[in-house]
Design a protein that fits this description.
The protein has nine helices and no strands. It is mostly helical.
């Protein structure tokens, strides 16, 4: 939803490239944190972040792709989210829309905050559960059918971000 609102702002300021990047290319990074939790909840057996913690050692692939998606969604340079956020925020600021610019900047900050909170609690936080008796129910990386698409999205987020860092759209 936030991506749709942000792209509407960018269309209103004639930043068509930013809007398209936000809705398409940025999806590699933005959709990843939306689909990544499926692998985590499948492995842990819960959707509650309070039931998770310390999963980076047990689920290293999931932790890596989730972190890449979070970095992109937060708008960190060299990731797809940075290129689209820079384009949209620049167009809104250049258009003289100070209040929408402030709202979008606040939204970007809050998004980065809550996504990094999820990463730290889920993958690096304290382990809240006892060791399982059945090794088949222990937290583990998802099978390739689930992890493969996550890796594709993570590589897209990095590839698009690096490309637009080296070849800025307005440069």
């Amino acid at each position: 939803m936030a991506r749709l609102v942000t792209s509407h702002f960018s269309l209103g300021t004639s930043a068509l490239l930013g809007a398209l990047a936000l809705l398409t290319g940025c999806s590699g990074g933005d959709e990843q944190p939306s689909t990544g939790p499926g692998g985590v909840s499948q492995a842990v057996g819960s959707n509650d972040v309070k039931d998770m913690g310390g999963l980076a050692r047990k689920m290293p692939q999931t932790a890596i792709v989730f972190l890449i998606g979070t970095l992109s969604l937060a708008g960190v340079p060299l990731f797809a989210g940075f290129a689209s956020k820079e384009e949209v925020l620049g167009a809104v600021w250049t258009g003289g829309f100070a209040i929408p610019f402030a709202a979008l900047l606040l939204s970007a900050f809050l998004t980065a905050f809550y996504m990094f909170r999820v990463v730290f609690l889920t993958f690096f936080g304290r382990t809240p559960y006892p060791a399982p008796r059945d090794p088949h129910h222990a937290p583990h990386d998802a099978p390739f059918a689930m992890s493969g698409p996550l890796w594709i999205l993570a590589l897209l987020a990095m590839g698009i971000g690096i490309y637009f860092t080296l070849q800025p759209p307005h440069g």
